[in-house]
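re: ur question from yesterday

yeah so i grabbed the chain u mentioned. its 106 aa long if i counted rite. heres the sequnce exactly as i have it in my notes:
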Amino acid sequence: MTTHAVPVTEADVMSALDAIYLEIKRVRRELRPEDHLVQDLDIDSLTALELLIALEARFSVNLLNDPRASTVATVAELVDVIRRQVASREPVEQGTSKIPTISRHA
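ran it thru and got these structure tokens back, copy pasting raw so excuse formatting
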């Protein structure tokens, strides 16, 4: 018997991001998919690390070892990486964890 993972919706991830952002930044703000992590949300490398660790715990994913996570620039891109990992539960390359950098491109 195969057990299927429950799909994670965009709304699920956005709600978690809102809560985690509030906890980390101490700023209440409704995040939008088009928000840029660096320019709009003022997320620096330390905040990015805290955010990714909290998202890993919340969704049981492995963002720190996923090269896709280190290239995201917007909330929508981050949501997509999380949803893809949850949907596929694909293993990411194992090895040394890399501290993510958030892309600064627009």
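noticed a couple things. Residues 10-25 form the longest helix (16 residues). also The helical segments are 10-25, 45-59, 75-88.
anyway ttyl
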